[in-house]
Amino acid sequence: MKRSKLIGLLVLVAVVVAAIVVFEPFKKERADKVTLGFVTTLSKGPAIIGKHMQDAVNLALEHIGGKLGGIETEVIFADDEFDPEVGRLRTEELVQQNKADFVAGYIWSNVLLQSRAPVLKAETFLISTNAGPHQLAGEECSPFFFSTSWQNDQTPEAMGEYLNQAGIKRIYVLSPNYPAGKDMAAGVRRTFKGEIVGETFTPWPGHADWSAEFANIRAMDPKPEAVFAFYPGGAGVKFVKQYDQSGLKNDIPLYTVFTTDTTTLEAQGDAALGMKATMFWSPDMDNPTNKKFVSEFEKKYGYTPSSYAAQTYDGIMLIDSAVRAVGGNLSDKDAVRKALEAADFSSVRGPFKFNTNHFPIQNFYLREVVKGDDGKLMTKIVATVIENGEDAYAKDCKM
Amino acid sequence: MTVVLLFEQLLNGLQLGIMLFLMAAGLTLVFGIMNLINLAHGSLYMVGAYLAAAFMQWTGSYIWGVLLALPATMAVGIVTEVVVLRSLYARDHLDQVLATFGLILFFNEAVRLIWGPQPQFIDLPEFLSGQIEIIPGSPYPSFRLGIILVGLATAAFLYVLVTHTRIGMRIRAGASDRVMAGALGIDIRLLFTLVFGLGAVLAGLAGMMAAPIVSVQSGMGEEILILTFVVIVIGGIGSIRGAFLAAILIGVIDTMGRAFLPQLLETFLERGAAHTAGSTIAAMLTYLLMAVVLFFRPQGLFPPRSR
């Protein structure tokens, strides 16, 4: 009696296992839910950037009816606390516990570099909507990694190009000492044809006072014709205010990347007025998608979106287009990749195309900080510096 | 390296030192007299900056903003002391560290809830936003000069307050022997509240003066807190004189290191490497100094006389 019961149980188990094995391939045909993990900084100093990105995710979802590719969607926001170790931990949780189908976000290059391994190893698609370290664009590129922003070097490369066009021969470079800071300096060095007369990498994060560096620049003989700087978020507020107060702004014009945008302009105030920066996008860009994005963003949240928001909005739309194209069959990774590569969505920057390393090929513009009609500071595109720019590392990417 | 540049960098160092002193004075008073480790001292710096920004936006004037924010910061400090810290005096230092660390988180989230995550805007009056040529050919930001003057005046005020007034006498008595001072009829509880309020005002003042230079945002207090602890350790815990001298020392060494070390290294290193190594070593200088001081004089350079 006992024995036959055991056999019966074993048979039952065998049948169930067989059923699972047989039906497994059919079950995943159309996922009944898409899980998107979004990692950004929601606490600590630079939380404002994270807020722009989070608001952009929510606006994009609203525009697609809350469903990525028409499928029930769960978005999980994770806070990296501006710390690579925490970022990695949160990312691992998203991949392993929440079984995220897509992981997106990442403001900081050092956080992304630390966090990428668990995502890519699990063959989950990773979409950076800001950080673009050169490693991921070149030799360490991955078939599962995409960017809807830029490779770090590109924006400063455009600035180097602009400085050439403006006839500037001698510049001084100031940048924070972390992966993106190094990439930004490398970018301007690659295209700038004049001489870089000095270069300082300040500690990151936490450098609060540039008075020593400014005094050194002022004392140089002959003086540099321009200063190039990269200080994102709150650091940019301090930097621009101190540059203005030091009186250097009148002597040596300041050219920046990612230092003046709507996350910082209000706090920088008139100190930022007239400053020039290169960027792939500006709120005043004239195309229907961007107009809709900017006006509805302003209406919903009461402030003007920054490039961080724009990239993120594009990132969500990219994922939406891919899920839609594969009809929700997310288990076919090759098909999802092809759909992502096709980038069949309407970008806020106008036409959008991926390079072979999954970074966008795009234009870069010169933006100037001006006073708008309402008296508020805004960025305005004044020239196109680079058309259809590709990053320098794509050739090293073998996928 | 010219004399003018050296002088300008000395001024920069002095200015950083003065800011550190304002922070360190309050911290060292609270630690030396009340025997309380207050990690949330940086939060009062942040609260001062936020209140100054808020009052500035309300009144339209930075000066009024500061004048209104000073008593407001003191009020925040006193409420914190009465509500939270009072029950911690009898506990050991680890409990105090835990509780005041909690306060840091509380204040950081509180300002984010009230003012949002974006950095706050501070507008300087015309006469403070320009530059002054102290030596011809070397314009110096007038606001930073203002910081130096206000800081020196505060140091003088503290000196007079502590050494030449009755309340100062009580503070010193409380620092020397709390129990005996209490037995002689000094209301220690009230004294502690006053000392903490004074510390809060000093930290707040530092925050208000830093506000136009740095970014007024949640968590700004922690940036300066570590260096402040270095200052009071080097200066000798509980000593205002020590805090002053150590703050100036640290300010000047830190600035000089950042200003001249990279060029110095350039004489025997390739330029890129010299700049990277130079700024890295410069960032470590103050901590090296602290290690050396702790090794030879664990009680600090200028410890209070009777402890």
Task: Give structural attributes.
heterodimer, A: Rossmann fold, six-stranded mixed β-sheet, 14 helices, B: 307 residues, mainly alpha
Q: Give the end-to-end Cα distance of chain A, rounded to a whole number of Å.
A: 61 Å
Q: Quickly count the domains of chain B.
A: 1
What is the highest CATH level, the class of the largest domain in chain A? Alpha Beta
Structural class of chain A: alpha/beta
Helix content of chain B: over 70%
SSE order of chain B = HHHHHEEHHHHHHH
Number of strands of chain B: 2
What is the average per-residue confidence, as pLDDT of chain A, rounded to a whole number? 90
In short:
The complex is a heterodimer of chains A (399) and B (307). Chain A has helices spanning 2-27, 47-63, 84-96, 109-121, 134-137, 154-165, 179-191, 211-219, 234-245, 248-251, 265-268, 288-301, 307-325, 333-342; strands at 34-40, 67-68, 71-79, 102-105, 125-128, 145-147, 170-176, 195-202, 226-229, 254-256, 276-279, 353-354, 360-371, 377-389.
Describe this structure as you would to a colleague.
The complex is a heterodimer of chains A (399) and B (307). With 399 residues, chain A is an alpha/beta fold. Chain A folds into two domains: 34-150 and 284-354, 3-Layer(aba) Sandwich (Rossmann fold), CATH 3.40.50; 154-279, 3-Layer(aba) Sandwich (Rossmann fold). Helices cover 43% and strands 21% of the residues of chain A. In chain A, strands 7, 8, 9, 10, 11, 12, 13 and 14 form an eight-stranded mixed β-sheet that branches. In chain A, strands 2-3-1-4-5-6 form a six-stranded mixed β-sheet, with helices on both faces. The longest helix of chain A has 26 residues, at 2-27. The model of chain A is unreliable at 24-28 (pLDDT under 50). Chain B is mainly alpha-helical. Chain B has one domain (3-130, 141-296): ABC transporter involved in vitamin B12 uptake, BtuC (Orthogonal Bundle). Chain B is built from twelve helices and two strands. Chain B has a two-stranded antiparallel sheet with strand order 1-2. In chain B, helix 1 runs parallel beside helix 6 (142-164).
